[in-house]
């Protein structure tokens, strides 16, 4: 039998480091704007946060009119696709800490589709092309029961 004395102390979770990120977002509201404009937001974020978390924080705490798509938040659905620092990425999969935080993070809607509002594009042309290409298997016969 051990002579060790167990202390009953609550575990202290390690603190997640925080930092300020500047997001420069290309905004467009068809009811107000003639052309898209850039708007800057500063947000305090944690080391495990993703671009989608920063967008939520801006929407909930700074500007409720910010408009973007999101769904599963796990990189499966692709609904939060956008251009982040000039590259097409998923906001839910892009860690803020992996970006160069010494300069503003630019965020804009993906290119090649009609812009509807802020970070939302009209996906109809994409789905029409998708249907025309038929990127899936088509059975030549009906399955047996």
Summarize the helix and strand pattern as letters. EEHEEEEEH
Strand content: 25-35%
Q: How many H/I helices? A: 2
CATH architecture: Roll
Q: Describe the sheet with the most strands.
A: 5 strands, mixed
Q: What's the CATH H-level superfamily name?
A: Beta-grasp domain
Radius of gyration: 22 Å
Mean pLDDT: 85
Number of strands: 7
CATH fold annotation: Ubiquitin-like (UB roll)
Unreliable spans: none
Strand neighbour order, sheet with most strands: 2-1-5-3-4
The helix fraction, in percent, is: 10-25%
Structural class: alpha+beta
Protein model, in words:
The protein has 145 residues and is an alpha+beta fold. The protein has two helices and seven strands, in the order ββαβββββα. A five-stranded mixed β-sheet has the order 2-1-5-3-4, covered by helices on one side. The protein has a two-stranded antiparallel ribbon with strand order 6-7. A hairpin with a 2-residue loop joins strand 6 (115-117) and strand 7. The longest helix is centred in the middle third of the chain and has 11 residues, at 51-61. It is flat. The mean pLDDT is 85.
